[in-house]
Structures are given as structure tokens and as C-alpha cells.
Amino acid sequence: MKSVDKSAVKLSHPDRVYWEDAGVTKAGLADYYSEAWPRMAPFVTNRPLALLRCPEGTAGQCFFQKHAWRGHAREILTIQDPNDNSEEPILAIDSFDGLIGLVQAATLEIHPWQAPLADLEHPDQIVMDLDPGEGIAWQDLIDAAREVRARLEKAGLNTFVKTTGGKGIHVVAPLAPVTAWNEVKEFTKAIADDMASDSPGRYVSTITKSKRVGHILIDYLRNQRGATAIAPYATRARAGAPVSMPLDWDELGPSIGPAHFTVNNAMTRLGTADPWRDFRKAAMALRRR
Asked: CB neighbours of 99 closer than 8 A, spacing ≥ 6?
């Protein structure tokens, strides 16, 4: 895989440390993204983004940003969401320069919508977020991901899997963008509710923290208008500078944990075959249940 050429966006203070424990600087983050960009681009360009910005790195205060701010790089796009009553522009990028504009702005996490700017009312992917409660082993999470896969594939969808760079696993299914948000949310809620009903000792489908201990949350709420999920290859503002990494299903096992891949070790991974190379080709229309 060939990295992209140097960005036209100038980084001020390139030696500013973003992850002190991993020794990753602003320039180091830009270097990682230059390698990851050819694979990452289809998942972050031309769709609304929510950002986690950490101006002082992970050691300082971080905050989410969904709307434009004064002084952002001109390579970061601003778009008006017709359903946003605040009339504040939402954010997007359409180029590697836009991504480096986000790096310059201390963006340590990039969370896209599940729909593109070209059609905000029809999602083009489903994200099922498997979030472990206290006491859940990694193998339990792997088993849950495989069950989600089986249920989605029974519904006629193709599935892909990735680490989140946090604690969980994302099972992602590309969609033909012909189904409205409410139907997609209803479908994913039914999957989560069915899993919780069939195995109440293992799964929950509600976010209530008191119910989460010893259970895996099947979080379907990523699949509603305006909701987001961490992008493939995007970094997390967590210890070790982890990244969300696409996997082949047969790679999902005990040797690769949820935060196994980091800015510092992902370069080798990016030199191997792309497990999500046929992601968009695999898009299917959602069938009514």
C-alpha cells in the first residue's frame, strides 16, 4: 500500500505530544495517517463527523465537537444539516489535507455518521457496537460478535469486523442506501433485543449501567440519524495511542485484543492485505423482517 504525499496543511508545533505514554506527537500522528489514508479515506470522506479534540493531548482536557469552530483549517468542510435547528454547520472532510487539518486541530478521535453527505437520510452501513460490562472476558466478546454476524447474515447482509481501540468490537454491515433511518434503527434494535431475550444472562440491549455488570451491551443506537461510531483506522484518545483496526473474521481471536493495534505498531499491519477491500461491493439492501 502506498502512502500519500505530504499534506499542504502546515503543522504548527509538530513536536507537541498527543500521547505521552506512547511518545506520539502531532507529527507522528500525521505520519501514521499518511500511511493509513488510502484505506481510511472511503470511511471518513464526505460524511458528517463528530470529533474528539484534545488540545493538550490525552494528558489534558478533551471535548467532543460536532459543529464548526472559528479558525479551523479551510480544508475542513462545513455543511448545513437541514434538520439541525441550531443552524450551526456540521463538519466533514474530502481529502487528506482535510484529515491533516483535523490533526492540526488536535483531533484524536474521528467518529463519522453512518450516512454520506450525498444522502443524509439513508444510511449506507450498520454498526453494531459490542460493549463489555465489568467482568466480561475477551472470548465472550468474540462469541458475541460471531452471534451478531450470524444474525445479520441470516437477514441477508454481509458483515465485517474491527477492533474499536477501546474495550469492544464493532460488527459492520454495508448497506445499499435505500432504507430510511427509522427502519434501520428498528431492525438493529430487534437484533439487540432478540439477543438479550434469548440470552439474558449474557446480553443487554439497554444502556442502563446497573444492568451492565457481567453482560455485553449490544449497542444498536449507533444506527440513528446523527449518531456516530469510531472510524476504521482512527485513533483513540486512550493510553497507548490505540487505533480501530479492521480484521478478517478468522483473525478475531485471543491473540488480538480490542486495543492491540496502535499508532506505533500499525505500520506493519498496513503493509498486509486489506481485509475490508471489498466493503462497498458487499453492500446489500435491508430486507424487511
From this structure: 7, 33, 37, 40, 44, 93
- 51: burial class by Cβ within 10 Å (0-12, 13-18, 19+)? buried
Sheet architecture: strand order including 160-163: 203-204, 216-219, 125-132, 169-174, 160-163, 246-247
The answer to whether the CB of 132 falls within 8 A of the CB of 96 is: no
Instruction: Output the nine-digit C-alpha cell for 129.
Output: 457496537
Query: And the C-alpha cell for 219?
Result: 449497542
60-71 b/e (C-beta count within 10 Å ≥ 16 → b):
eebeebbeeeee
Coil, helix or strand for 158?
coil
Note whether 151 and 157 are within 8 A (CB): no
The dihedral sign for the CA sequence 112, 117, 121, 124: negative
Query: What's the pTM value of the predicted model, to 2 decimals?
Result: 0.96
- Is the pLDDT assigned to residue 183 strictly greater than 70? yes
Alpha-carbon distance of 15 to 121, in angstroms, equals 41
Share of the chain above pLDDT 70, in %: 97
